[in-house]
Specification:
The protein is mainly alpha-helical. It is about 80% helix and about 0% strand. It folds into two domains: about 30 residues; about 220 residues, Orthogonal Bundle (MetI-like fold).
Length: about 270
């Protein structure tokens, strides 16, 4: 019993250490965002002697937050919806059509998870430039390609537990394949759809490398890309820079807190089913 208590205590201690390691940078960032530039240079860990709210107002204005936020929202929402639609349809077809071909196709989707983006980065950019897709529409297509692999795997595991009899009954009643999918299958996918949407939305929202490669027109920049350009313009203004980073973090943190319970539930349901 004492041995188990020691192990439990050690695990709790390790958890506290890991939590501090994760929270400390965010705390330093938040703390610095309310300090003047002089105070940041004096001590980055000390609490601000006087809270400077003007850092946020200046960063909001210079970051062109409304435009960047709109670009990020548009790209994230459209990409996520397209990934959910195409991935769920693909997974459904692969589950219901059991054959060697469907198994091979599913394994290709699963294997794509092992391919780093950096390995296909340059050929992809070269191809998209020749197709004149180095724009916001093109980046949505690319996100569909990169997000489909994990999404298909998650949907595939969940759909296995949906009774085939429901679809057969719908087809007997006169539904075609599209009506069966949209009226019968899709409503049953809500738990895993929420999980897939959260995972993809967080990844797309925070993505920096792909927008930097594809989006090269002023006014099209997403929030992470605009923040990077902001730091290039105000490299020594850490007071404004830290405030800009906090502003960029707030939307996705709020979104995750509001829906984080669905992540574990959806993944667990997909694994069990």
């Amino acid at each position: 019993m004492k041995y188990k208590d020691r192990i439990k205590g050690l695990m709790i201690l390790m958890g506290v250490i890991v939590a501090i390691a994760w929270v400390a940078p965010v705390f330093i960032l938040l703390n610095s965002s309310f300090k003047s530039l002089k105070e940041i240079y004096i001590s980055i860990l000390a609490f601000p002697k006087e809270i400077v709210f003007s850092n946020y107002t200046q960063a909001f204005e210079k970051l062109d937050f409304v435009q960047s936020f709109t670009n990020s929202i548009m790209i994230t929402v459209i990409s996520t919806l397209i990934i959910i639609l195409f991935s769920s349809m693909t997974a459904w077809v692969l589950v219901r059509n059991k054959s060697k071909k469907s198994t091979i196709i599913f394994m290709l989707f699963a294997s794509a998870l092992l391919v780093p983006f950096q390995c296909v980065m340059l050929p992809l950019v070269d191809l998209m430039s020749h197709l004149n897709l180095m724009n916001r529409f093109g980046i949505v297509i690319m996100y569909l390609g990169f997000g489909s692999s994990m999404s298909v795997v998650l949907f595939h595991g969940f759909i296995k537990n949906i009774p085939l009899e429901l679809e057969e009954a719908a087809m007997i009643d006169g539904c075609n394949i599209f009506q069966t999918y949209f009226h019968i299958v899709l409503p049953l996918l809500k738990p895993i759809m929420v999980t897939v949407s959260i995972i993809n939305a967080m990844w797309i929202w925070n993505d920096f490398l792909l927008p930097q490669l594809v989006i090269n027109k002023t006014g099209w920049q997403t929030l992470p890309l605009k923040t990077y350009l902001f730091f290039g313009q105000f490299a020594k203004r850490w007071d404004l820079g830290t405030a800009a980073l906090i502003i960029g973090m707030i939307p996705i943190i709020v979104f995750y807190i509001a829906s984080q319970k669905y992540v574990v539930k959806g993944v667990t349901d997909g694994a069990i089913k």
